[in-house]
């Protein structure tokens, strides 16, 4: 640990600017959402009020945002649970290096890099050609999975690449069945990463726009509703909505990170009984 | 039978495989098929025809729009790489405590989990005609007239891309950098390398896989985008994604599908080239 080189201070300044660049705009609309009733879309602030937040609770001002919010929430939870379960199963499968796993791996990468609008267009076309009704919980749900599953699986690959197999061998040597090994040894060890997969599943679904555009049907999800508003709403009510949505996202992210942290603490406390003469 | 690892593997991967078949492979096949169909104003007609492609390749708009798409991708790539590398380098090599490293890294990644559309909207008070940037520049006496090109221009489109996607560079580059053995850097210093020489000849080459993964993310996200360009340019600029979404809005599905096929081929060629330089499975 020596003296900091000069470059440290330059780079610290660059980093601070980057953080300002990331968060500055969001903070600005946070401030502007408290505009007075006569205020516009930019500074100066004409008074300070909760006027625009109140507007969010009135149907005629903003349309059906609460319905959209409930749908996005339900869809986010569906996608989250499915992403965790399917990614874990996929992660276990890929450890076995089965025939054809290489092709499946490239399909996962393809799912990640394919332009979202192609999924939207393709799924929309299939449903209309087959005469199915597009709905956020069917076509929208499947389309979002093509975006959340690759993230979930990449995390699982990273987890299992670092997984120490001797834990499983020890469990087997002690007479655990394969299921017991998974349930009592592997899953507890990878639990914090599963929370990470859940976080990706929920937030990517909750904010997804392009893949839901043509697959949500007649009931909009929240991002679609917000985008619709940008074309015809010219008051700070859209900032109020943005601020509320961002706060909700931050709350969710905070809850996930807190859970990981608590799990880490618990593990540090209960993890090992080595040397305690148990 | 169930003891066979290949069968077990496929069984465990079956939900994944079903989702990918139903919502990735079948949609792509459908798009390819529909791209050969014909359309009238009111309906689409299953028939084999090359007219969508003939129209696409015969129109100078197509070339202009593909050029614009590649231009956005190239400029955004260069900027996100520059910023992303610098930020990742700072986090990996200048932050000494691990807790601080994790905290700052999370600070960089949290916006990724919030809404892209809100993050685009939040540039409006900055860039508008009477926005913060213009008022500040005017009050400092740098300009007399408000700058018109701040919002609804190539500038605002690229600014939004950089704002949204730099994280996709920071995360993989940081990930590879934290795995660089610090004794290599000490060895370089002991042999008399300057800070810049160490960066140029040791760190950059070892970080290449991370750079490649970040590049794949940024290029595909920008090339496939349609919403950022539409929103940040106030519908005044076009890229391939917008060409597709405009056709969809006009219910011209076969024409949209043909454009989508060409876009997909372009993206896959770019990814194919990049994947030659990196083994993703090894880097996770």
Distance N to C terminus of chain A? 40 Å
User: What's the N-to-C terminus distance of chain B?
Assistant: 32 Å
Number of beta-strand segments of chain A: 0
Major pleated sheet of chain B: 2 strands, antiparallel
Number of domains of chain A: 2
- N-to-C SSE series of chain A? HHHHHHHHHHH
| Radius of gyration based on Cα positions of chain A | 24 Å
- State the secondary-structure class of chain A: mainly alpha
Structural class of chain B: mainly alpha
Beta-strand share of residues of chain A: under 5%
Please tell me the overall pLDDT of chain A: 86
Tell me the quaternary state: heterodimer
* Residue windows where pLDDT falls under 50 for at least 5 positions of chain B: none
Question: Number of domains in the coordinates of chain B?
Answer: 1
- Biggest sheet of chain B: strands side by side, in what order? 1-2
* DSSP helical segment count of chain A: 11
Mean pLDDT of chain B: 88
Protein name (chain A): Putative spermidine/putrescine transport system permease protein
GO cellular component, one term (chain A): plasma membrane
InterPro entries (chain A): Bact_Polyamine_Transport (IPR051789), MetI-like (IPR000515), MetI-like_sf (IPR035906)
Subcellular location (chain A): Cell membrane
What features would you describe in this structure?
The complex is a heterodimer of chains A (278) and B (284). Chain A is mainly alpha-helical and 278 residues long. Chain A has two domains: 23-55 and 234-268, no CATH class; 64-232, MetI-like (MetI-like fold), CATH 1.10.3720.10. In chain A, 73% of the residues lie in helices and 0% in strands. Chain A has helices spanning 6-32, 51-55, 59-62, 65-95, 101-113, 116-130, 136-161, 166-173, 178-207, 222-232, 237-270. Chain B contains 15 helices and two strands. Chain B has helices at residues 5-12, 14-34, 51-58, 60-94, 98-109, 116-121, 124-127, 132-139, 154-177, 182-190, 195-224, 227-232, 240-249, 253-275, 280-283; strands spanning 38-39, 44-45. Chain B has a two-stranded antiparallel ribbon. The longest helix of chain B is centred in the first third of the chain and has 35 residues, at 60-94. The radius of gyration of chain B is 23 Å and the shape is globular. At the A-B interface, helix 1, helix 4, helix 5, helix 6 and helix 7 of A face helix 1, helix 2, helix 4, helix 5 and helix 6 of B. Chain B: Keywords: Cell membrane, Membrane, Transmembrane, Transmembrane helix, Transport. Chain B: InterPro entries: MetI-like, MetI-like_sf. Chain B: Belongs to the binding-protein-dependent transport system permease family. CysTW subfamily. Chain B: It is found in: Cell membrane.
